[in-house]
Amino acid sequence: xxxxxxxxxxxxxxxxxxxxxxxxxxxxxxxxxxxxxxxxxxxxxxxxxxxxxxxxxxxxxxxxxxxxxxxxxxxxxxxxxxxxxxxxxxxxxxxxxxxxxxxxxxxxxxxxxxxxxxxxxxxxxxxxxxxxxxxxxxxxxxxxxxxxxxxxxxxxxxxxxxxxxxxxxxxxxxxxxxxxxxxxxxxxxxxxxxxxxxxxxxxxxxxxxxxxxxxxxxxxxxxxxxxxxxxxxxxxxxxxxxxxxxxxxxxxxxxxxxxxxxxxxxxxxxxxxxxxxxxxxxxxxxxxxxxxxxxxxxxxxxxxxxxxxxxxxxxxxxxxxxxxxxxxxxxxxxxxxxxxxxxxxxxxxxxxxxxxxxxxxxxxxxxxxxxxxxxxxxxxxxxxxxxxxxxxxxxxxxxxxxxxxxxxxxxxxxxxxxxxxxxxxxxxxxxxxxxxxxxxxxxxxxxxxxxxxxxxxxxxxxxxxxx
Length: 467
What we know:
It contains 22 helices and two strands. A two-stranded antiparallel sheet has the order 1-2. The protein starts with a helix and ends with a helix. The chain is mainly alpha-helical. The protein is globular, with a radius of gyration of 22 Å.
């Protein structure tokens, strides 16, 4: 009976982590609801465009990355369950309040920045609790919890659609904006936006509180580190401090082939790693190659409406793309078990550049299947960044400092997200989508010009002596 009780508690913690990740996985939901929200807010500001509202997506990502390192310390001090309750309550209340706003800045603050900041605190909770119960099965725990992250957008995309546009009405309000045109919904749809946001807030609250209640840690778990133990030289502190949506996944994928590096291939100190050319080449490559995927996740619906005015179908496209993005991380990580980083990453870059160069042609064909396929491919390739980069980063810099250095390196994805937003904001009205896709193609191929200068293995001891 005692064994069954312990097993039940362990499995409950995994279920709780999965439910928490369902809520956190709504990070990618914005691309599916942005056109509804923009249509609604245009009542008070007719000059507001979907391009303006796209700022909500990178802002949430920025907030997420800012607070991720602090979650474990709060969990140790107030308990993971209490932290989970706090995060879910604030997240849902902020979303609920956003349903009453009528302006751009107030909405973005309540929908994006506050939830992004608070979600960052909760991102590590499922792993923190799960790893305590399954210390030798960290990869499996990560896989189970991250599957919830991938399913979040898939499920809540349909919740949003059924709340705001159950009759699948077409966007008919056409607005010419410079060299492009945008389609928005009429009053019979956009007046349901507050109801949609409140429905999402309620479901987030229900799912998140259930997941938080199931979170727990063993009674004999290790207490929070002291001030001395939080020194960057402490490997265990580094491992728990710098968990992010990307480097957590690297632990899952790379655990199978993680080998003990000899001391000369371990980065000697943080400063050396951060100043190395390898660090900055990786930063540049990720900043460029991930941009098109973030851009597509932000605009796939508003752009798709120009050629396929079927809201239910485009919602289905976005939901499938979210699944593809999540599952692809396992696939690309599996490839890194057998092949070096450069050829795997070259496939990601080459295929992404191909998609950027051809998506305008595909959209103009007005084929539902081909549009679905292209968006799926783009997001499948985008997901590869979040397994290949953390894995190669930790292999390159070693176990001692690798996770911390990658915590800094992962900001290249924040740069990529903002780059996509600003290119869209500044140029789409002037040159149109087709020309902007050509710009993204050029950005996508930048990594090919610097990849030859990147070394996947560095003798850090020798480099340190040369200094």
